[in-house]
């Protein structure tokens, strides 16, 4: 790919729009456990975020929960910028009745929950300072090497008790997420990630990161943030299409820095005969498996 065909390093992910069965039932998870603030409520839409910045938009109208092994959203990742912030979320998660899990990916520490509609949520704290290198294994797997030379699968459990030691008795845990919280990546379950990667890399212009059928993960991003859009095949043999009316991903947003960047994407979509609609300054399109995305200008 020519350099001018690669998305700018300054692109970022904007609001992620999700379908839910019932907004009032979902709000306690997104607000009281995750820590987002309700910014607007207008009929069947609720905008949630931090410090006036929209991160998640819930759309009412789904008629059924997203089944756990459906091709669609795996999780949306909300990134925090301090380990103490992650600990606050962990305390709220532990105090709730939600099923949850936690993993140490070496490059990040993460908590996982779902809302009542089955939309997966990851709360992530990036830890690049622990990571030294990634090695492709002979069988096609991936090994992560830490700065101290130890090797990791990237799927080890995270010790929540140890994480909670970041907090002292004076720390308030029932507080909104910090103003610098952001959407760091979006992760889907996929049937054919190879086809999806050809689209995200060759047409949209993302940079490749992990492309491993053995590991079960394909992802892409920018030079600054390698893991922005990801697809897993861990349930590919059992994967089913979401039922009609299911909750899940409505669309996610990619924010581009300039009109030239947006025009270049539109040109590549046309060259690849990918249908798209222009709404104001935004491009609305779908990837080869039907995941919808909107590409917008940073000023919009």
TrEMBL record:
Top-level taxonomic group: Bacteria
One Pfam family it belongs to: Glyoxalase
InterPro entries for the chain: Glyas_Bleomycin-R_OHBP_Dase (IPR029068), Glyas_Fos-R_dOase_dom (IPR004360), VOC_core (IPR037523)
Transmembrane feature ranges: none
Gene3D superfamilies: 2,3-Dihydroxybiphenyl 1,2-Dioxygenase, domain 1 (3.10.180.10)
Keywords, comma-separated and alphabetical: Dioxygenase, Oxidoreductase
Molecular-function annotations in GO: dioxygenase activity
Residue span(s) of domain VOC: 12-126, 182-300
Name under which the protein is recorded: Catechol 1,2-dioxygenase
Taxonomic source organism: Mesorhizobium kowhaii
